[in-house]
Design brief:
Elements: H1 3-6, H2 11-33, H3 37-60, H4 68-92
């Protein structure tokens, strides 16, 4: 069992993290389903916000509960997702 799920102090924190991480893929999927570049880009911006929220929670809150190497790995994955989303958003939006 995961010690975070056993700790009553972490119940809400874990729940929030699962929700924000899940929101990343949900917004990508919803935006893609809209079949419009503008809508897709808008949902990718929302997904990027969720990725940023997820990264921040690892850096600021989970650092007190998880080993530093796990936090560093998960933060790096979030940063990779943010970079991919940012590049895709730039490619979808028309040049000014």
């Amino acid at each position: 069992m995961n010690p975070l799920t056993q700790n009553p102090l972490c119940t809400r924190l874990v729940s929030q993290q699962v929700a924000s991480a899940g929101s990343i893929s949900s917004n990508i999927e919803e935006g893609y389903g809209r079949r419009s570049r503008a809508d897709y880009a808008r949902f990718l911006v929302i997904a990027r916000g969720s990725a940023t929220e997820t990264r921040g929670r690892y850096k600021q809150r989970f650092k007190h509960w998880l080993p530093p190497e796990i936090v560093a790995t998960r933060v790096a994955l979030c940063e990779e997702i943010i970079a991919i989303l940012s590049a895709t958003i730039r490619n979808l939006r028309p040049e000014p």
